[in-house]
Amino acid sequence: MAFPIAYLLDMLVFTGIFGIMALSLNLEFGHTGLPNFGKVAFFMIGAYTSALITLAGYPFILGITGAMAVSAFFGAIVSLPAIRLREDYLAILTLAFGEILRLILKNEEWIAGGVLGLKGIPEALTTTSFKSALYGHLIVVYIFVVTFYIFLRFLEKSPYGRLLKAIREDELAAQSLGKNTVWYKAQALAIGSAIAGSSGGLYAQYLSYIGPDLFMPVITFAVWAMVIIGGVGNHKGVLVGALIYQIFERGSRIFKDYLQIPIDPNNMMFMIFGLLLIIVLMFRPEGLIKEEKIKLL
Amino acid sequence: MPFETNLLQILFNSLISGSLYVLVGLGLTMTYSLTKFPNFAHAEFITLGAYIVYAMTDILNLGLISGIIVSMLITGFVGVACFLMVFRPLANRKGTMVHLMISSIGVGIFLRYAIQQIWGGQELHFSKVHFAGYNLGPLRVTSLWIGIILTAVILVIILHLILTQTKLGKAMRATSNNPSLAQASGIDIDKIIMIVWFLGAALAGLGGFFKAADTRIVPVLGWGILLPAFAVIILGGIGSFYGMIAAAYILGLAENFSIIGLISLGISTDYRTAIGFVVIIITLIFAPTGLSGINFSKWFKRRRPHEGEVME
């Protein structure tokens, strides 16, 4: 009896954690037009930073704050060589950054345990039973989801958010109005990376174990799938996208027990995932829920 | 095993790495400039090439040469199929560059797990193909390494001749320079683009076979070469054939010489893949158009700008 509920709660926690990632990518790509192909790097930075801070005995809230600060720093610094240029350079650079970061964390045992990773990361709330722990996680994660959602909605409607959209639509026009677009793009990446970093921190405390192999590039593209399926530029949409992705991923895992197919279910899931990405881009590139129009007076 | 630090061996190893990057980078840079997006699925063309050679030689008992030819043909057709079934329709539907990049990731994920489904995720080795090794004085060579270098050199010469001496080469250069003008001049640019996709994927497959023969066959084979390949084409200047060749050997030298530094510092030699990352960053900061965009003659003779000319 307890199993399906625990499974559902687990799924919702994952939806929340990756929903935060999707929100951050939506700010970067959906609103500002910056294709960050290294989302997993900032997720990883957040997870490792917060894990190291909480393992050193400091409280969870300090861990998350640290994770956000370090991720924001890297988000702004790493992209600097590429944001003056066309968006494809940013994509290649951030993708490469993720790979190199994983290489470093794998090889340098003194930073965070190397290949073995970090174990026994303290949870945000100390609880007694398994079930109350799950509810605790759910509450913690969704406090962050709601906070970031409200923050990003506020940002979207502010003049600042309109400026970011102006950069997406026509950077030259924004520049000619006297806006330092490179500086604003770096800010958008810093904010986006900070949010992604906090999601990494939540992930680390939820799993209580992290290692380099948890942060493969496919996570980046799962987050991209959430944004594209849910609706580019719509914060509500990308949260729906995160839920759809979780249902798809878990559904295919459950399905394998009932289906007699000669294909390995893991391989099949990824093959369908690749096809789905192409089909959505081809037939509904704006996603399920379209971007809202800017309300003028 | 003591690590070889003799200079000759390092230069020779650089030549091998550089030659591999030439094979892999060619298709990447050409399709990038013709179809205007970086094709991340190129990594999977590399992997596919290696696995098909494996299937031909180890499972079907074909000879190595015929195995390589079949592999290049199949990989080339897969490249063209990706272009015709995914990238061209998407571009026709007004897909942006980011849409094309994401779709290439989708294609890549599909191909990688299809490969994993067919041949399994474990690492494989070419058991029926052996390469003789020789010691030339202090230099250790194998017939495979000589094959890699010779293939790249012959390929570069042939492509150079095609690009400069034939009508096809002229059409290719025109298409990559200005597609609409090329079309207006009566060039069938669709045909040219398809030839480039075929050639690029086939050569990536060949490069994949060489890399796999030198190491092992795994589903992430191509993904591991993709980062240095991007470093090569960015350093060379996207779409530049000669820039790419120069950049391939520069990166080969940088990676192999970095091994000495890494070993003397006591750091893992895995970090040589980070050289590509450093190259990308430096290129983007100082010369975003790459080697092909640098006006070298400017460095040798100072000249005053003509009337009305803007000095870069």
Descriptive report:
The complex is a heterodimer of chains A (297) and B (312). By secondary structure, chain A is mainly α. Chain A has helices at residues 2-31, 39-55, 60-83, 87-107, 109-112, 130-157, 159-169, 171-176, 181-207, 217-230, 235-255, 265-283; strands at residues 118-119, 209-210. Chain A has one domain (2-217). Helix content of chain A is 75%, strand content 1%. In chain A, helix 1 (2-31) crosses helix 10 (217-230) and helix 2 (39-55) packs parallel to helix 4. Chain B has helices spanning 7-35, 42-59, 64-92, 97-119, 143-165, 167-177, 179-184, 189-214, 221-236, 241-265, 274-286, 296-300, and strands at residues 133-136, 139-142. In chain B, a hairpin with a 2-residue loop joins strand 1 (133-136) and strand 2 (139-142). Chain B is an all-alpha fold and 312 residues long. Chain B has a single domain, classed as ABC transporter involved in vitamin B12 uptake, BtuC. A two-stranded antiparallel sheet of chain B has the order 1-2. Chain B is 72% helix and 3% strand. The A-B interface holds A 29, 33, 35, 37, 81-82, 84-89, 91-93, 95-97, 99-100, 103-104, 106-107, 217-218, 221, 224, 228, 263-264, 266-268, 270-271, 273-278, 281-282, 285 and B 37-38, 40, 86, 89-90, 93, 95, 97-99, 101-103, 105-114, 116-117, 223, 227, 230-231, 234, 267-268, 270-271, 273-274, 276-277, 280-281, 284-285, 288.
